[in-house]
Amino acid sequence: MDDDVNGAIRNPPARLVVGISGASGAVYGARVLDALNDLGVESHLVVTKAALLTLSQETDLSPDELTAKASVVHKLGDVGATIASGSFRTLGMIVAPCSIKTMSEIATGVTSTLLTRAADVTLKERRPLVLMVRETPFHLGHLRTMTSLAEMGAIIAPPLPALYARPSSIMEMVDQSVGRTLDLFGLDWRAVRRWEGLKS
Hints:
This protein is 38% helix and 16% strand. The strands form two sheets. The chain has a six-stranded parallel beta sheet, with helices on both faces. Strands 1-2 form a two-stranded antiparallel sheet. The radius of gyration is 17 Å and the shape is globular. Strand 1 (2-3) and strand 2 (9-10) form a beta hairpin. Helix 1 (26-39) packs across helix 7. The protein is an alpha/beta fold. The termini are far apart. Keywords: Flavoprotein, FMN, Prenyltransferase, Transferase. Belongs to the UbiX/PAD1 family. It catalyses: dimethylallyl phosphate + FMNH2 = prenylated FMNH2 + phosphate. It holds the Pfam family Flavoprotein. It comes from Brevundimonas vesicularis (Pseudomonas vesicularis).
């Protein structure tokens, strides 16, 4: 927390950076935005061109409908955007879904787009960076890249179904993964079904 000019304590802002890359699973990013709206958290969205292509193939959402879910939308090439600076305070960043290309750029410090620049800023500021990596099976290079990112402080969180929650639809599985990922930022979304122990 920081002091303002009058000496009062200011709380960290309730805002989260959301990146959507071109891996399968654009719905995860869309539901992250929905969850943040429910929670009253300001969302700063950056989307890759490949993500919009995936969106058109996997969902009924148009690009305009997706971006309307965000509080603020940043252009992919706008490296002068607020989220490109560490002085712009956030709770962290989530990339949902995270493609192997995006993951690899982040791991090597390559910041060819605003999405990877924002991720790099998140790491250098020691804020939570959560990557919902979508690929399977992983080869050794993928795994080594994930290890490198974990050593830098990133959290690798592939969206895997929590079957104990007895999901009855794909959307329930998506929401469970999104909610558990938001837990990592201290955000408690209503859609999460919590483990309550074994039933006797």
